[in-house]
Amino acid sequence: MTAPAKPSLNPLPLRERMKVPRQIMPEQSPELRCVNFTEVNLGYNPELARQEALRCLECARPACTKDCPVGVKVHEFVQLIVAGDFLAAAAKIREDNVLPAITGRVCPQEDHCEGGCVMGKKVKPLGIGYLERFVADYEQRSGFRGLPKVPPTGKKVAIVGSGPSGLTVAGDLVQRGHKVRVFEALHELGGVLVYGIPEFRLPKQIIREQLDCMREMGVEFETDVVVGRTVTIDELMEEEGYDAVFVGTGAGLPVFMNIPGEHWNGVYSANEFLTRINLMKAYKFPTYDEPMLDLHGKDVAVIGGGNTALDAIRSARRLGARKASVLYRRSEAEMPARAEEAKHAREEGIEFRMLTSPVEFLSDGKGWLSRVACVSMELGEPDASGRRRPVAIAGSEFEIPLSVAVIAIGTSANPIVQSTTPGLGTDKRGYIQADPESQRTSRRGVFAGGDIVTGSATVILAMGAGRRAAKGIHQYLTTGVW
Amino acid sequence: MFQILHAELLAPGIKRFLIQAPRIARRHKPGQFVIVRIYEEGERIPLTIESSDAQRGTISIVVQSAGKTTHLLNSLKAGDHILDVVGPLGKPSEIRNFGTLVVMSGGVGTAMAYPTAAALKQAGNRVISIVGARSKELVILEQEMRAVSDVLFITTDDGSYADRGFVTDKLRQLIQNGVPIDLLLAVGPIPMMKAVADMTRGEHIRTIVSLNPIMIDGTGMCGGCRVLVGGKSAFACVDGPEFDAHLVNFEVLMQRNATYRHQELESMDEFRRAMETQPETTKKDASAVEGTPV
User: Fold this and answer.
1) How far apart are CA A466 and CA A482, in angstroms?
2) Do B84 and A263 touch (CB under 8 A)?
3) 3-state helix, strand, coil in chain B (%, to 5)
4) Number of CB pairs < 8 Å for A and B?
5) How close B254 gets to chain A, by Cα (Å)?
């Protein structure tokens, strides 16, 4: 940590800043939020935001920006909050991140910007995610749409998938004057942001507002198009005149456990369970037509320890589950979920059964799930992921009564685009191969990024890939060099 | 939004819609389906594509009233719009010259069997079709099937038209008469497809069925449509909808299709009550065309 080069707008001397406590995010009480789908975190007000912003030490070589997959200039936007110019702060973030209201809510900040924050070594890291969310929401409420129009380049880009990577590419390219059209397979835009992440963590209204911003910037959208089925990439390029295509089709097929009994009624993939609730609004049945099993008074468990698992089990809680448990085969330290989500889940009475792995789903004899047989695990030597490998303890089998099980152990590549695009290179697991810097694929003019390249990851990592792809596409369109 | 250009009643409770959907029409191949959602609060349901016209940019779908969504859909008429139509989904049928082909269809399954039968006829197969229905008035697409079949049999459960009995009775006769069958395609209610599979298994007749499990997205993302085939999970929307009948676990398919029976009945009851008390508003809802702005 060295002294700031420019005169600081922050009136507090450095040593005083350490004494300001991290401002607590106001949230709905656990009792209340267990029975609704309204957002848990309520957001900072301007006073809380300014108070939190005062804590920034203004490092000369800030780890926060370096560790951000899209390189948000944290120091600069935080100083603008200190100065009280929230709209300028929002504009500063938008230079690098087209979806700040979303990342402010769902990024695992502890793994990125806040993870390397110097303050975190002594006290608590700067609340960068909370501040980002604050300025994005402030900008939205003030109705500000301050993005300059650029002259058109005459180039057309098709984007396959309207999730975080696709929207990032779209936002970045439209700001460089390219004509951009986003194709979405579902009837609603947003990809995993709408079908995967529940209302209580990311309200759909926030996504709609971000999409409105993008429409205003000139991005075109077309829903109900499954690229590979409704139209192929070759047709887009050869017949519809697109100069480049970005493939951001996301995490594909749900992975099942391949244990007996996965076909009993009451066993769901997390994708299906969450899609019914989030996209189809089955929790409002019968106002909405898509049905959902009645969870009131039922025992529900999710298998897995990631954000998706917690999203599913916290949804089950809100839908009236009597007992809602997380079954995870490793220990809490290895859980990949965001720290704040695990904290919120615990406050909501979710039971965490660690070192537990299902071996069979058992039925009531009429085709409905009634119990799950599990084994206890212990941690052995580290595996390929660097985490200690869970090993079953012999003779530790036990059963848990269960009406609904949600399997959230990951996804595999959806083959639709790959299998209908000749010459598009994939790895042995079926994910699209792309250059890590330019996101170029083996097909001229075709780029790819996000989960369809890396396998399931996070919103912000997909956005990082989107930024790189936008740069790669822009370079290709302006130079013609592949 | 997708405009309905023409709607006609094929049989009581069964309607055929001609829909403007140029992208889907261009790509459609026999055996594929669409998923539709008719209004903002609606569910997504898979429906067979009966035919398509790439030049005109149209597809035809055939809908049988069963639950709330299909009842609402069948209340629509020419000029109305369907909010979402996505497709063509699923793997196309395998089309080549197999030799002698038997096409068996029950009820509205005939709409799914027809385009595949037509393509297989075109590919040089000898096509023997057996179309079944509960009664005379429920026999659909008779002319269309006749046009693509070398031989057409019709069976009705109650004997009110053509031969009395089930499609399987006719198949048994064919087998007993020693008619060589190189491939059999069966599309219809699950008990019918199961009965066909049981009958042809011992005869070693290659048999294909088209399955209709519960679906949401239709692109492989949710896994709700998983069926047990040869003891392994397969997704009907991307691995199917056609599978080797002798490997399909029909009991599990039936069990899983009944998952939401209770909710489906509740939905239908509520819909009926609404129709009785406020027929006008419900009707308006039925043809609602306001969608999400895109």
Assistant:
1) 18
2) no
3) 35, 30, 35
4) 131
5) 10
